[in-house]
Amino acid sequence: xxxPFVTVDVFTDRKFGGNPLAVVPDATGLTSAQMxxxxxxFNLAETTFVLPPQDPARTAEVCIFTPRAELPFAGHPNxxxxxxxxxxxxxxxxxxxxxxxxxxxAGLVRLSLLKEGASLIGVRLTPPQSLNRGDDLDAExxxxxxxLSVNDIETANHQPCILSCGLPLAFVELKTRAALAAARPRTxxxxxxxxxxxxxxxxxxxxxxxxGFDLQVRMFGPLVGVPEDAASGSPNVALGGLLATLRPEPxxxxxxxxxxxxxxxxxxxxxxxxxxxxxxxxxLSIGGCCVPMMRGVLEV
Length: 300
Fold this sequence. Notes:
Elements (H helix, E strand, L loop, with lengths): L1 E9 L8 E6 L7 H11 L4 E5 L8 E6 L4 E2 L3 H17 L8 E5 L2 E10 L2 E8 L5 E5 L2 H7 L15 E4 L4 E5 L3 H6 L4 H7 L8 E6 L7 E7 L4 E4 L3 H14 L5 E9 L7 E10 L2 E20 L1
Parallel strand pairs: 2-3, 4-6, 11-12, 13-15
Antiparallel strand pairs: 1-2, 1-17, 3-4, 4-5, 6-7, 7-8, 8-17, 9-10, 10-11, 12-13, 13-14, 15-16, 16-17
């Protein structure tokens, strides 16, 4: 069986930047086991598989796999998949109805296409679930998991904690950009203290405006086959919500330019937004550019 695939670099405007994604635009006939095996073969942070929607009013059902596990939701796979489907539709002489709506295990993901003139340049999404803050986490465990000192962790604004908009991660503010650069994931600590049934990784962030960013981040998910992620849409959309909740104003709109992947040599730019009304988060989104890279055929 021959199955076409496309790869794109996500959250970048140049080739060989951002986060690579493999997309199978028509995964009809593939089993979940085959999807997992194909994701392991690509060995990218994620691979997506597109199926017909269960509700014909929606765009598609999308399955997301890391090299080791299926995810209920993730940001860069949605951005890249929407971009690929729009490009493929254009190649076929048709246009996709907007907003695109993807059916996923975490819920419905709505996406809009970003254009520059008539050219498609990227995608913006809203997450399938509202922001949910879970447990606080032991700073010493988090520090050990990231090969850092507990003194590198900033706790004046919040304790390390679990947040989710469909995918639970630990969120940790660091004091310095140097600490962010020095971090390294320790799989043994993740395995013992931070299992995947509780969270799928750790997002470290620091307020740092160098390079035209507002924040710089790194994300580690070694237990799902992602030692480090070059650009993480789901965690960063939740991060925007966290930062909005920490502000005292009951009503505000925030926008952040987030840099990720710099320490990996895969510089990425993610543009997150959050809106709060009456002290409650009422809107979250994240978007970025995409660049096509490869297309080919899988022999399955």
